[in-house]
Amino acid sequence: MPQQLPAVSLVAVPGRRRATLEVAREIERRGFAGIYAPSVFSNMSLCEALAHVTEHIAFGTSIAPIYARTVGDFAQSAAFLHEVSGGRFRLGIGVSHAPAHVRMGVTPGKPLGDISTFVQKLRAHDASGALPPVYLATLRKGMIALAGEIADGMVFANGARSHMADSLAALPADKRRDAGFFIGNMIPTCISDDVEAAKAVNRKTLTHYALLPNYRNYWKEAGYVEEMTAIETAIADKRMDDVPKYLTDAWLADCTLFGPAARVREDLEAWYAAGVRTPIVVPSSAAGNQMKARPLRPISTDRRRQA
Fold it and tell me: Which of 13, 164, 196, 198 could, after both became Cys, cross-link 190 (CB 3.0–4.6 A)?
């Protein structure tokens, strides 16, 4: 069966911003399902550029921290991007995590309450023009349920494939049936014929997340209690160099994509089957930076893409 292409995560790193826009054009030319920018190096600015350098591909933030700007500023920027892109922009929002809160100098409230209030205020800014679809960053079931109530979609980051059906059960039944409700997942991806090197890249990428309590709690919920408890012990003992070794191969295969292109394409099918309508590959390279990451070979599809 012809395979649907995933969406791609893209970061405009300083010094490579023009080159990043060329990559975006290539992603569109190859027929990928979308471009989503994580919350580094001003993803709203990247999205503004994408509105002008691409023509038909969907794009958005995944995610923009709600504490980074005023609600009014978000509303005006989002409405602008929605209009000039011809409706291709999606506003992915979330509460981010503790290290980001420190950098932003904010003291957040309860995640569910803060997100709910933000969305309510955002949609009250009708003078800015029509707003784009709003997606919520999700991991735990409370936020998933809230996304089903107040948003147009949701985006996991580093979700566990084996746990996805259980997570999606928290969605209202009508949203589970609604093909227009966006369900995405940011998946660390390293395509390389050297499987061990590819695993090492993804393990390094996810070590940062393993240091965050909210992610460890999610992965415990997903069944990785032993691994996360061992990491917590290592952190308490200040054995930070030991953390990666507790990110087991089984856990890595459940949360990331790695290996030769054929294997990655096969594993992508498993993500679709698990209920993720739009996997978002987060490309890394075993031989350099994002610009050297091997793209998935273009594959034509007769499936209906969701953007």
Answer: 198
Cα(246)–Cα(223) distance, rounded to whole angstroms? 14
- Enter the DSSP assignment of 127: G
Report how far residue 202's alpha carbon sits from residue 137's, in angstroms, rounded to the nearest whole number. Answer: 21
Task: Give me the phi and psi of 188, to 5 degrees please.
Answer: -55, 130
In a domain, 214, yes or no: no
C-beta neighbour count of 110 within 10 angstroms: 11
In a domain, 112, yes or no: yes
Structural domains of the chain, count = 1
Give the pLDDT confidence of 88-145 residue by residue, as tens digits: 999 999 997 666 666 767 777 899 999 999 999 999 998 889 999 999 999 999 999 9
Kindly state whether residue 178 falls inside one of the protein's structural domains. yes
**Domain containing 54 — which CATH number?**
3.20.20.30
Bridge-based pairing state of the strands 134-137 and 35-37: unpaired
Task: Residue count of the chain, please give it.
Answer: 307
Helix (H, G, I), strand (E, B) or coil at 201: helix
Phi/psi class of residue 61: alpha, beta or left (left: φ > 0; alpha: ψ in -120 to 50)?
Answer: beta
State the pTM of this model. Answer: 0.91
Q: Whole domain around residue 81: which residue ranges?
A: 7-192+257-292
